[in-house]
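Our working data are protein records whose layout never changes between entries. The record below serves as our worked example for the rest of this section:
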Amino acid sequence: MKNIPTIKLGIIAVSRDCFPMSLSASRRSAVVKAFEKYGEIYECPTTVENERDAMKALEQVRGEGCNALVVYLGNFGPETSETLIAKYFEGPVMYVAAAEEACGSSLCDSRGDAYCGMLNASYNLALRNIKAYIPEYPVGTADEVAEMINDFIPVARAVIGVRNLKIISFGPRPQDFLACNAPIKRLYDLGAEIEENSELDLFASYNEHQNDARIPGVVREMEEELGDGNKMAGILPKLAQFEITLLDWADAHKGSRKYVAFANKCWPSFQTQFGFVPCYVNSRLTAMGIPVACEVDIYGALSEYIGLCVSGDTVTLLDINNTVPADIYSENIEGRFSYTHRDTFMGFHCGNTPSCKLSSSTMKYQLIMHRGLEPDKEPDITRGTLEGDIIPGDITFFRLQSTADAEIRAYVAEGEVLPVATRSFGGIGVFAIPEMARFYRHVLIKGNFPHHGAVAFGHFGKQIFDALTYLGAENIGYNKPKNVLYDGENPFSLK
């Protein structure tokens, strides 16, 4: 993945002047040693007792190229100095504290009181309005702290990525598609940039790439990827031309930003003017690490990018689309899995899911568009979808969204794609999320979320939740267990 940050960690130990500095320094070294099984972390040689120490330590970690930082309370820690580290460091910062070790018959010189110091650290961070990552239980042994630091890496990757992201859109949204409309102001609050363009800008650039010398090479790549699923071979040159157009646009328009994502118009006039549907190209760019959200869904692209950073793997964007027919549930799910019928639904989009996340993939045409645009003829301008059932396995369904009044909300739910044939079209799968019906009503509907959700392939709820929190989501919904009521939920409805 070239389109996400590489994390270079540093660790700075802090020490209150009435505690032995050597205690904090030795505990820091033990954490560094324990972290070796996960990767590398730069051990800052300066242990911070005062503000001058803090500035010196920051120079050292910057000099080593660190872009994410761990502030380690080996003892109680100096409240002001340890907080200023996060204030002046440019990247995400994590705060953790040392648990007391076995001490034999005496707990005197070896006692660090970092359990107490963490409370004051968090209070001082709040006084200065400083964002920091603090684990659920931020006090531990060297091995436990090392594990916490490893959990911090995907969070840091998402935060750095978003703060250096440009979302490029080509629009406007289709008519009656207000669900994907959201104020862009909060993108700037998150640190991202947005470049909004017209479809005409994209069309002009596409036409300028006609007869581009790179087209045959991209066609060969597509043929190799599709294999026996290459059922619409005649459309590949146009798709290759479009892929090159988007990649060149990203390179030319990234500007000061390091990373890029797209949110692109894909119907209804796209087909009549470009002569194809862009779904397969969207899937290929997403597999390259450049998410492309359908239907000018800007916050969908942002959500996909967060999932990409957290998981380190490709993602997709799907409609929370339709219920599972009763016969499919009774024949293939009931009795085999613990899910109720209402825990299941189908996640679908026309053909934007990468081939590596489909059980088998075939180049087809967009059935719905074909009905409206060329109903009584062989598919032509509606060709270009990548279709197949989504691979079974664990997933995380999530979204970050600005409301109409510019509040940042999000949701996260873990579940799975079931090994059940969909018997349908598009990129589609049978999804199961525990207590989905209540989540659907009291988070998705009540929270006014649109029908698009991002999908990460694996259970990443903890890391995505932490990343969304660090980025500033003011309200994060999740699928609550049956015995935990949502705010405003009718308790009598659970009988």
